[in-house]
Amino acid sequence: MGLCLFHLNTRSLNNADKANNVISYISSFHNHFDIYGFTESWFNSIEDANLISIEGYNSENCIREDRRGGGASLFIHPKYNYVKREDLELNCSDCDSVFVELPVECGNIIVGVIYKPQSVDFTSFITELERTIAVVNNENKRCYIMGDFNLDLLKHDTSLDVANFINLFYSFNFCPLIDRPTRIAFNEKKGTFSATIIDIIFTNDILKNIQSGVITTDLSDHFPVFSITSGNASNSANGPSPYLTKRCMKPENIHGLKNALSVTDWGSVFTDPNPESSYNNFNTKLNNLLNIHCPIKNKQYSKRSAQKKTMGYPWDN
C-alpha cells in the first residue's frame, strides 16, 4: 500500500452545504486517500472546523480567528499515529500551514499543506519556506508539501518570484508533481480564459514510482490535485533501492549522438503545420536517437551511497 495524497482549494468550508458537497464528493471515490489537504477553508473557529468530518479521519487545522478567508487543514487516516510538527509551520503573516510526521518503516514521512494568498509579501514567504525545507533536509526525512501557493509554475521563465520559488525547492532536491493547469478562470472584460498551475504537490521522495495529476470537477474554482505512491510507503524494510538509472553520457556516446543529430532529416518537423504533432514527431526522433546512442542503464550503489544520491542537487550527475 502506498501513500495517497489529495489536495483541494475549497473556497470556503464554513457552511454546511459546501462541507456536505465536499464530503459527498470524497465519499464517491472507490478508494480513499491517506491524507486530504484543504486550503481556503475559511474557518474562523473550532466550531467552523467541526462542520466537516471525514469518517474515522483525524484532523489538524490552521484557523483564522481574527479575519475572513484563508485557512489550511489536513485530514489523516487513523492508521497513522502521527505527530503534529508545529515547528515546520510558516511564521509568515497571512500564510496558513499545517505539518504532520507519519511513522513508517525505514524513516518517517513529513506531509504539509500550505496556503499563500496573493497579497503575502514574497520575501517573507520565501524566507520562511526555506527555513521549513531546510529543517526537513537536515533531518534527512522524506517529505510531501502540497497547497495553493498562488505562484503560477507556467510563468517560471517570465516571473522572478516564480523562478525563485521553484528553484528553492529544486535546491533541496524537491520536484513538483503537477504539470497541468489547476485553475481556469474567465475574464469577462477581456473575454478570455486564463490557465494557471498554482495548486501543487512537491516531494523529495524522488526514487518512488508516483502517479499524480489533476482531477476535473466543478466542486470549486480550483481543481483537486493528487499523488499516489506505488508500493509501501517505504521502498523496502532495508531502505532505498541500491539501483539508480541514468543515461550513459560518456564522450563517445555524446559524439555519436551529435553525429546522428546532424544527419537526421528534420524536414517533417518544420513543415508540419500542427504544433502538437510537430512536437511529438520531434520528441520521438530525439528519444529514439538518445536510446540508441545514450542508452539508459542501471548502476548499482551501496545502500549508503544510494541514500546520499537522493539528497543531491538536480545538477549532480
Explained architecture:
- The protein is α+β, with helices and mostly antiparallel strands.
- It has 2 domains: 4-229, Deoxyribonuclease I, Chain A (4-Layer Sandwich), CATH 3.60.10.10; 243-300, no CATH class.
- 29% of the residues lie in helices and 26% in strands.
- It contains 8 helices and 16 strands.
- The chain has helices spanning 16-27, 46-49, 122-139, 160-171, 251-263, 267-271, 275-293, 303-310, and strands at residues 4-9, 35-39, 58-62, 72-76, 83-84, 96-102, 109-115, 142-148, 175-176, 183-187, 192-196, 199-203, 210-214, 225-229, 243-247, 296-300.
- The strands form 4 sheets. It has a 6-stranded mixed beta sheet, with no helix packed on it. Strands 5-6-7-8-12-9 form a 6-stranded mixed beta sheet, covered by helices on one side. A two-stranded antiparallel ribbon has the order 10-11.
- A hairpin with a 4-residue loop joins strand 10 (183-187) and strand 11.
- Helix 3 packs parallel to helix 4 and helix 5 packs antiparallel against helix 7.
- The longest helix is centred in the last third of the chain and has 19 residues, at 275-293.
- The radius of gyration is 22 Å and the shape is globular.
- 31% of the residues are buried.
